[in-house]
Design brief:
Blueprint (H helix, E strand, L loop, with lengths): L2 E9 L3 H13 L4 E4 L6 H10 L4 E6 L24 H7 L2 H17 L7 E3 L10 H11 L23 E3 L9 H10 L5 E6 L6 H6 L4 H10 L2 H9 L3 E2 L2 H5 L6
Parallel strand pairs: 1-2, 1-6, 1-7, 2-3, 3-4, 5-6
Length: 253
Amino acid sequence: MTKLVINADDFGYSKGVNLGIIEAFNFGVVTSTTMMTNMPGAEHAAALAKDNPGLGVGIHLVVDCGSPVNDDVPSLIDETGSFHNVEGLVQFAEVADIEKEFTSQIEKFLSFGLNPTHIDSHHHVHGHERIYPIMEKIAQNYQLPIRKVSDDPKHTSNSRLQTVQCFLHEFYGNELTSRSLIHLLDKVLSYETAELMCHPAFIDEPLLTGSSYALQRVRELAILTDKEVRDAIVDRKIKLVTYKEATKQSNAF
């Protein structure tokens, strides 16, 4: 039986995103989410997480959206105090500042009184060759699983960091349907553990004006709460789990 984590990214981005994720958890197939602790909706997300203890909540580390948590990371920000975009991040960011900011975001998450299930990153920046070693170090320090970054079975993220075996990022874009999601479900059946990324949300002003991927999230929410999708998961004997259940977390790696 395949254990599948369906993780909703961007928890904490805004109230609309937060409420959409909770909707997809309570009435759909989402089992897990990762929080952006640097965004305006973080405290609202933390309160919702406490009200929905069955939802696995990890940390969505961010260095290219919004502003930093740490007030002493000069290489990460532009003249307005906001993070650089991805291109600027690669050009200007210093490794020490990235580590400092990631650590501050984790500590902020812990200050909410929540226990993180795992860590990943906004726009998958932890897959970058300069950033991955930082992510690996932090994952080991906090003893947290990390979202898979490579299909290479020899990659350290697949052996030391309690990741799942398969990561699916394809549930994203303008052409999503319930059938396309069900097709992705068939791809995980050859694995013991897998993660599928998604971005459900209700639209609010911060999301509509701040993200290039906004209206599509409403469609994702409709699909993730579609009975046809739920039935397909049951028919395939897929077990929906959190990262804690998928990786059998212990006190040490």
